[in-house]
């Protein structure tokens, strides 16, 4: 790992030189602690032949750690000032800087193809960014992201947990996720008023073949939109009535009295598959962020 990691003085000097005033809107909290950078790079379990995708390189703190660990780094930054300054801070040939919104990037932009997502994510768009990239970049084998601690808890929760919800199930569609530690506010400038958490995830096969991801996600959205209701009631609008919802649930082997918070992603997939077979679930509304396609 580069021994030129940025500390508090370097971060402040760099920001002053570039005239950067961090904005909340873009989730700009910059890391200024070399130990935390080393921790993130280690927790990502990178291989020397990995190609890292970093969303939001900012002033380059984490980027400097990544370029010492992998064969190529793609850094996607939405802020033009930060994107323009990055090649000077991280002056290596195996870095590609992309001035772009991570929520809109597609796979064809990256050569070589990214294999690991490693990022201190902008907190306001962290979950949509992770889901968008897993959908768009099949070459990603996993990643390590830093997000707000509560979001880390949600992303890694399992059925039955109080914080299990839409982000937990959707991430579970793509990958197995586990918590990889807590990070205190003091390692950032400016200091946020929340703790952060690390999430490690490894891609796996989707739990069901032949079901469109968007159809499964529509069931998940409907179930958690009214999470206190039984699935019979919560899925009534989606299925075209509570009786139809019950028929689909029974066919999928799920109790109509259960609640979404107790179901695995595989069970959500089974419900979507049964809805398709029975012709119910006609009110499927593909999630906007997700391209329509069948995972097989
Ligand atoms: C939490 S900061 C992390 C900065 C740096 N990686 C670090 O650890 O010090 C988030 C970064 O994401 C950038 N950003 C915010 N929204 C973005 C988006 N939609 N696409 C790409 N970058 C974004 C911000 O400009 C900022 O540089």
From TrEMBL:
Keyword Cytoplasm: yes
Pfam families, alphabetized: RrnaAD
Chemical reaction(s) catalysed: adenosine(1518)/adenosine(1519) in 16S rRNA + 4 S-adenosyl-L-methionine = N(6)-dimethyladenosine(1518)/N(6)-dimethyladenosine(1519) in 16S rRNA + 4 S-adenosyl-L-homocysteine + 4 H(+)
Domain Ribosomal RNA adenine methylase transferase N-terminal, chain residue ranges per copy: 36-205
GO terms assigned for molecular function: 16S rRNA (adenine(1518)-N(6)/adenine(1519)-N(6))-dimethyltransferase activity; RNA binding
Record SMART domains: rADc
Keyword entries, A-Z: Cytoplasm, Methyltransferase, RNA-binding, rRNA processing, S-adenosyl-L-methionine, Transferase
Binding site for S-adenosyl-L-methionine: 29, 31, 56, 77, 101, 120
Enzyme class: transferase
Localization of this protein: Cytoplasm
E.C. numbers: 2.1.1.182
GO-annotated cellular components: cytosol
Gene3D superfamilies per UniProt: Ribosomal RNA adenine dimethylase-like, domain 2, Vaccinia Virus protein VP39
Family affiliation: Belongs to the class I-like SAM-binding methyltransferase superfamily. rRNA adenine N(6)-methyltransferase family. RsmA subfamily.
Protein function: Specifically dimethylates two adjacent adenosines (A1518 and A1519) in the loop of a conserved hairpin near the 3'-end of 16S rRNA in the 30S particle. May play a critical role in biogenesis of 30S subunits.
PANTHER family reported for this sequence: DIMETHYLADENOSINE TRANSFERASE, DIMETHYLADENOSINE TRANSFERASE-RELATED
Name under which the protein is recorded: Ribosomal RNA small subunit methyltransferase A
Lineage, top ranks: Bacteria, Bacillati, Actinomycetota, Actinomycetes, Micromonosporales
Gene: rsmA
């Amino acid at each position: 790992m580069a021994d030129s990691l940025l500390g508090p003085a370097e971060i402040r000097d760099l920001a002053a030189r570039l005239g950067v005033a961090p904005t909340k809107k873009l989730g700009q909290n910059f890391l200024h602690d070399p130990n935390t950078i080393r921790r993130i790079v280690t927790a990502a379990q990178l291989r020397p032949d990995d190609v890292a995708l970093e969303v939001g390189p900012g002033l380059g703190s984490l980027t400097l750690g990544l370029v010492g660990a992998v064969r190529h780094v793609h850094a996607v930054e939405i802020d033009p000032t930060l994107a323009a300054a990055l090649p000077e801070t991280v002056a290596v040939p195996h870095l590609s800087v992309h001035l772009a919104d991570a929520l809109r990037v597609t796979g064809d932009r990256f050569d070589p193809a990214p294999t690991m997502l490693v990022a201190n994510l902008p907190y306001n768009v962290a979950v949509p960014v992770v889901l968008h990239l897993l959908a768009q970049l099949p070459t990603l084998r996993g990643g390590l992201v830093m997000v707000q601690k509560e979001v880390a808890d949600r992303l890694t929760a399992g059925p039955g947990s109080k914080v299990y919800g839409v982000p937990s199930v959707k991430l579970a569609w793509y990958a197995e996720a586990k918590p990889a530690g807590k990070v205190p506010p003091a390692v950032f400038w400016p200091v946020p008023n929340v703790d952060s958490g690390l999430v490690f995830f490894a891609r796996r096969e989707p739990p069901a073949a032949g079901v469109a991801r968007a159809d499964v996600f529509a069931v998940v959205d409907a179930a958690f939109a009214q999470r206190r209701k039984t699935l019979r009631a919560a899925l009534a609008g989606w299925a075209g009535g509570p009786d139809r919802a019950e028929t689909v649930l029974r066919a999928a082997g799920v109790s109509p009295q259960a609640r979404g918070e107790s179901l695995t992603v595989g069970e959500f997939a089974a419900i979507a598959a049964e809805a398709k077979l029975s012709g119910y679930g006609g009110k499927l509304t593909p999630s906007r962020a997700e391209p329509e396609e069948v995972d097989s």
